[in-house]
Amino acid sequence: MATAARKAPAKSKSDGKSGLSAPKPAEFTKDEELAAYRHMLLIRRFEEKAGQLYGMGFIGGFCHLYIGQEAVVTGMKMALIDGDQMITAYRDHGHMLAMELSPRGVMAELTGRRGGLSRGKGGSMHMFSKEKHFYGGHGIVGAQVSLGTGLAFANRYRDNNNVSLTYFGDGAANQGQVYESFNMASLWKLPVIYIIENNRYAMGTSVSRSSAETDFSHRGASFKIPGIQVDGMDVRAVKAAGDLATEWCRAGNGPLILEMQTYRYRGHSMSDPAKYRSKEEVQKMRSEHDPIEQVKARLIEKKWATEDELKTIDKEVRDIVADAAEFAQNDAEPDPSELWTDIVL
Amino acid sequence: MPIEILMPALSPTMEEGNLSKWLKNEGDKVVAGDVIAEIETDKATMEVEAVDEGTLGKILIAAGTEGVKVNTPIAVLLQDGESAGDIGKAAAPAKVEAPAKAEAPAAAEDKAEATKPAAAPVAAAPKTEIAADPDIPAGTEMVSTTVREALRDAMAEEMRRDGDVFVMGEEVAEYQGAYKITQGLLQEFGPRRVVDTPITEHGFAGVGVGAAMAGLKPIVEFMTFNFAMQAIDQIINSAAKTLYMSGGQMGAPIVFRGPNGAAARVAAQHSQCYAAWYSHIPGLKVVMPYTAADAKGLLKAAIRDPNPVIFLENEILYGQSFDVPKLDDFVLPIGKARIHKTGKDVTIVSFGIGMTYAVKAEAELRGMGIDVEIIDLRTIRPLDLDTIVASVKKTNRLIVVEEGYPQSSVGDHIANQVSQRAFDFLDAPVITIAGKDVPMPYAANLEKLALPNVGEVIEAVKAVTYR
Ligand SMILES: Cc1ncc(C[n+]2csc(CCOP(=O)(O)OP(=O)(O)O)c2C)c(N)n1
Ligand SMILES: [Mg+2]
């Protein structure tokens, strides 16, 4: 395999390490702000609806909502080119919507119907789309990190200029295979961006109770992988970090870590009592850092949109979600013969 | 149009709940995220969060109302410009507010609190009279106890008895256990002996084995055994083999425990039975209880055992109640099966959750005049073949029921051993019933098809008894 280093972007300086630091938030055009608003709102409304359908008994098992973290996938998606891959864990609905998987297909998978992306066989935690370069949807904490590194290996092997976006949580960041992957990725200069979604908790365990090093951007230090902390509640900051990281990887510098500082508003899964944090803490994030409200405020302030125009977008988004929910509730269950298909080729 | 707020389900199995409290009054403004009410299920008090904004127009179900069915309208939310007069026009379409947070014991991953969706084949407690266990002195007072409580009591008793016993795992301490099995242990024994770990199964399993080699007696909880696959090298290569490799100098007195097997609707990566996997390994003991009494007596035995013991629990059984003897120190022997019901026409051998199918099939078969003997293995390794063979010599027919995969299953091994040791006594081939040979699907209908069912057991019994 070719491992020769390619030209590094001008940004890398000489502080002995990479010299990378968090870039300033991207300057968004009106269209970009409006697109970010719409995409994040779609995820928010979709997740709210999923929560409702769970409440009505249409969705079973585990259902992990992404509410609060919308800016992370939305900003990163804005930095991708065609063919870049994405892989994540079980909190995956937002990632799939960002990768433009059909809301109907995602919702119908949540309800376990034949129109679901995995034909009802995978459920909330296990969805994939070869066409959209989305590689799942994984239920075992940390496993997707090695897999995402493998996607990057394939990119390097084919020399195709694509980058693997490998997402994992603050809790997952303590799994051993993460570091085994870091070492290989750095050794072989694989084009992978490790996106650590630090939402401060792994189920009921806060990062300070689980992690000796809580600055996750430093987690690659032993492997010479640079890292940046990013305000994951600000979609512009995420986009700027995404641009920097994709450029870094495409230039042949190997992996990069982006620690996205974010927050999940809901419990870990649908029935988590969430007694490990205060209501005030949640309310403070919601009222002061909400990713969607931030964009909304800028749009209004710059007079790029009126309240009414934003309401229209909200209505359009709600219609998409309502249609997906309608479909997901009424679509048929998989044919019983599906039990025996797709096991081996 | 005003929006009706409906009574939410907090799991696919919840059918009704109590509306314990309204936190907003009629006329109050509500924004998304506000907690508007508290509802109580049998296990948890959950807060109901508003999803939409508006004004609480009318409360339809008063605080304190019990047994409110899921999807009953509980209030009407008025939107901008609407008044009480518009209430009659409330939109019927489902507008269930999202259940947000619970206050009482409810585990993050314990969605159904140990019950399956109505569609699933496993339901409530067995009706079969459980035969007396010869290991329990006659006349002992019995106390109805859930499997969950029995497991917790077993650990607490052993921790009180032996200062070298400690428990470690994900969410075992402050969160009180993802499935609430370690509830109260942190409070009683403190953080030195009840240790929350990061999500690093391979690492903490190895740490546990090392501590055991140094003479401590760890109980390592896996949040579920699906995640023990991350750690299986330490379990097999380090824990199971050290005694042999060291020529008997040192072993690993350790218990690896946690829920095993399919839960409800959690799909392929979270639903498999490891009984057969671990039963393959010399150097391990493998225990898989069904009743609360066995869970307690065998967990205590496992903690005292000088060998590594794999202790396989089941999420769906956690909430089920059984009689547990009230004894100061109730320890059962590992490696001994229990005759759950005596009978003369056919033997059904099972273990763990598999017993639920056996027990239900027995009740129906009794109605057809077939007298079934049920053996609960309790321990998979070492396997109590003597008890099985003795039963087969009496009934001449054998069915084995388990939820795991069919190839190289526990049932396969038993069928083989019985054919070697009691071939002349068999009046029919041994039938093994297992989960289907497929990864567990998510869809409700497919999941049901993937698991064994009572009908299969009944058909098998009819086949071997030539009915
Ligand atoms: C190997 C493994 N261990 C444990 C679990 C159970 N589990 C599921 S999610 C989770 C917490 C993970 O937290 P984090 O990585 O921070 O992601 P977040 O849920 O916050 O998105 C745990 C312990 C699992 N699925 N896989
Ligand atoms: Mg987290």
Folded structure, characterized:
Chain A: Keywords: Oxidoreductase, Pyruvate, Thiamine pyrophosphate. Chain A: GO terms for molecular function: pyruvate dehydrogenase (acetyl-transferring) activity. Chain A: Its cofactor is thiamine diphosphate. Chain A: Residues 39-336 form the Dehydrogenase E1 component domain. Chain A: Heterodimer of an alpha and a beta chain. The complex is a heterodimer of chains A (345) and B (467). Chain A is α/β, with parallel strands linked by helices. Helices cover 41% and strands 9% of the residues of chain A. Chain A has eleven helices and seven strands. In chain A, the strands form two sheets. In chain A, strands 1-2-3-7-6 form a five-stranded parallel sheet, sandwiched between helices. Chain A has a two-stranded antiparallel ribbon with strand order 4-5. In chain A, strand 6, helix 8 and strand 7 (256-261) form a beta-alpha-beta unit. The longest helix of chain A is centred in the first third of the chain and has 26 residues, at 30-55. Chain A is globular, with a radius of gyration of 20 Å. By secondary structure, chain B is of the alpha/beta class. Chain B has 13 helices and 23 strands. Chain B has helices spanning 147-161, 185-189, 201-213, 232-240, 242-245, 275-279, 292-304, 315-318, 354-367, 385-395, 410-421, 444-450, 454-464, and strands at 3-6, 16-22, 29-30, 35-40, 45-49, 54-59, 65-69, 73-78, 98-102, 142-146, 165-169, 194-196, 217-221, 255-259, 285-287, 309-313, 321-325, 338-341, 346-350, 372-376, 379-381, 398-401, 431-433. In chain B, strand 22 (398-401), helix 11 (410-421) and strand 23 form a beta-alpha-beta unit. In chain B, helix 10 crosses helix 11 (410-421). Chain B is globular, with a radius of gyration of 25 Å. Bound molecules: thiamine diphosphate and magnesium ion. Thiamine diphosphate sits between chains A (91, 139-141, 169-172, 197, 199, 201-203, 268) and B (170, 199, 201, 223, 227, 230).
